[in-house]
Amino acid sequence: MINQRSIHLDTVATLPSLPRIAHLGWERADSTAYRHSAGNRAISHAAVQITLAGEGAVLSARRAVLQRVPRGRALVFVARTHHLIYGYPPDALGAPYDFLYANMEGAAATLMIADLVAAHGHVLRIDPEHAAVRAL
Questions:
Q1: Is 91 exposed, middle or buried (0-12, 13-18, 19+ CB in 10 A)?
Q2: What is the residue-wise DSSP string for 7-74?
Q3: d(Cα 41, Cα 39) in Å, to the nearest integer?
Q4: 29 vs 53: CA distance, rounded Å
Q5: Which of 3, 22, 56, 58 has a Cα at 20 to 30 A from 33?
Q6: How far apart are CA 23 and CA 37, in angstroms?
Q7: How buried is residue 76: exposed, middle or buried, by Cβ count under 10 Å (0-12/13-18/19+)?
Q8: Distance of alpha carbon 88 from alpha carbon 45, whole angstroms
C-alpha cells in the first residue's frame, strides 16, 4: 500500500533561473509497488527525498538493491537527467518506508542538485536528529 499527502505549488511570474518548490509531499510505502524511474519523468526537476523511517533503495533494472536509503539519508537526483530507479527494497518485508520529498524547479535548483550528485553521489547523509528534520 502507498499512502500519500502532498501539495502542489504554482509560483506565478518568477524568473526561470530562480529555485522554487513545485511539490512537497509525505509518503509511506510498504510494498515493491513503490518503484520509479527518475529518467522517465514527464518534466525535469530537482528532487530531494528524506527518509524518516524504514528504508528505500536505489535499484537495478532487475530490482536488485544497489544502494540503500535508510533513516539518516536523503536521495537526490535531477529527473530526466539522472537515469536511476528507486523505490521500496524487495527484502524489506512490508516494513513501512516513510519519507518526505521536495521537487524543485528552476535552473539554480537543478544545477545545485546536479553538483551535489557529482560530488557526493545520489545518497547523502542527513542528520535525523537535526531540528529541521525532527520538525517534519
A1: exposed
A2: EE----S--TTS-EEEEEEEEEE-STT-EEEGGG-SS--EEEEEEEESEEEEE-TT--EEEEEETTEE
A3: 6
A4: 11
A5: 22
A6: 18
A7: buried
A8: 21
